[in-house]
C-alpha cells in the first residue's frame, strides 16, 4: 500500500541487560552447542513485565517525537508471547501509562511482523480522517517465563527480551513511511502449528512451547520443498509490490532490517531474492541481542539511526515473517537527522 504523508517522528527502545552466551552456559542455562550457532548474547529482562518495557519505550518515543499525549489518536500493541494475566489486555495498561487518553487501544498478535502490520493499520486509521494526527505502536516480550526456554526451544535460535515503540504521524518527521504491505500465505498455515492439539490450549495445561518441534512436526499437507516454492513466490510478489508502491528500485535500498539471525545462511534465504547481500542486513546487531520477537525491527532501526549509519535520502526496507504464515514489507525514506541524535 502506497502511503501519503505518513512520517516517523519518534522511536524508542528499552533493551535490558545483555547476557553473553558464555555466561549463560557457565550458569547452566544454555547448552554449549549454541555457542557454535553464531549467537553472542541475549537481552534478559529478569522479572520486568513485557508491558512495562513497552511503556518505557513508548515514553521515549513520545518525548523524541515532539508530540504531546493529546496528539495521539490510536495505540497499537503487538507481542509474540504472554504479557500478563489471561483475559487481561495489556494495551490498555500501556495506554494508561503513556498517553492516558480515551482513544482506541488495540492489541495485535502477528508474531515477528507485528510492527509492520501495525504500521499499515495505523496509517489507514490516520488517513481515514483529517482530525487524526498520530498513532503510537509498541512492541514487547519477556521470554523468561516457565512456558519457554529462551536457549533450548530451538537449536540455532536464542530469544531475547525487549520493548520498542514508534510514533507515526501526519506531521513531517525525520523519516517518511513510503509503503507497507502485509500478506498471508494460507497454504503454509500448518508450518508453526505442528501436531499439537488446538484444545485445550497448551498454556492452560502448562505445556511448554517447543518451537523446533512445532516447526518439524507440521501437518503433511505441504512438503518442505513445496513450502519453499510457495513462500518464494509470495516473497517475490511482496518485494515487487512494496518497491512499486514506494516508487523506487531495489538498487535504491541502503539497508535491510529483518528479524534477528545469527548466521548468513538464514539471511541469504531472504536477502538473495532482493539482490542484496548479508552486509546490507543486521546480522551482527542481532547476534548480540537474540531474537526479540516483534521488537527486532524497531530496535534495529533505532540502532542504525542512533549510530549515524543512515543519511538523508537513504531508503530502508523492513521485512518480517510471522507464524501463520504472514509476511510484511515496508520502505522508509530518511529525511533528516532527528534531534535526539543531533544533540
UniProtKB/TrEMBL annotation:
Transmembrane segments: none annotated. It comes from the Bacteria. SUPFAM superfamilies: Thiolase-like. Residues 243-333 form the Beta-ketoacyl-[acyl-carrier-protein] synthase III C-terminal domain. Pfam families: ACP_syn_III, ACP_syn_III_C. Residues 108-180 form the Beta-ketoacyl-[acyl-carrier-protein] synthase III N-terminal domain. Keywords: Acyltransferase, Cytoplasm, Transferase. This is Ketoacyl-ACP synthase III family protein.
